[in-house]
């Protein structure tokens, strides 16, 4: 019979096949190799950095933070797919999941994972920050009214952004737009 293998959680964290980090108040305390590689940084250089360095714009960082708080308060965890930015400025789709270690402090200590989904969903059109936000909601299957409530926009403004996205992606219908956003061609 084999002796039990000693589990080294620090090694598991560092070499996990998915990007991971520990954060406090949206500042990365410790990141693993997969995360730094995914975003194009050297090992350890993200530690001590605000999550804002991973977002295309400061506005997107702030809006996402405001959106996360009520969901984390209700569930203790958050998950979405959004466009993020690598260190070289390249934009890519990323699946992000986080869990608060203290449900009473949703943006306090937490564990976050990041998965690069750009192979399935390439960023193929030049989008404004608001269009990226609307696109992320459309991919989640949200209606214009639902998006309007979450973004404090009018449904008409959301429809205007959806129409711009349809033109940019050459989509004739909303369904075709969503398929193109997720990287599936018809």
UniProtKB/TrEMBL annotation:
Keywords: DNA-binding, Transcription, Transcription regulation
SUPFAM superfamilies xrefs: C-terminal effector domain of the bipartite response regulators, PYP-like sensor domain (PAS domain)
Molecular function GO labels: DNA binding
The keyword DNA-binding is annotated on this UniProt entry: yes
Record InterPro entries: PAS, PAS-like_dom_sf, Sig_transdc_resp-reg_C-effctor, Tscrpt_reg_LuxR_C, WH-like_DNA-bd_sf
Domain HTH luxR-type: start-end pairs: 120-185
Protein's GO biological process: regulation of DNA-templated transcription
Pfam families in UniProt: GerE, PAS_9
NCBIfam families associated with the record: sensory_box (TIGR00229)
Name of the protein described by the UniProt record: PAS and helix-turn-helix domain-containing protein
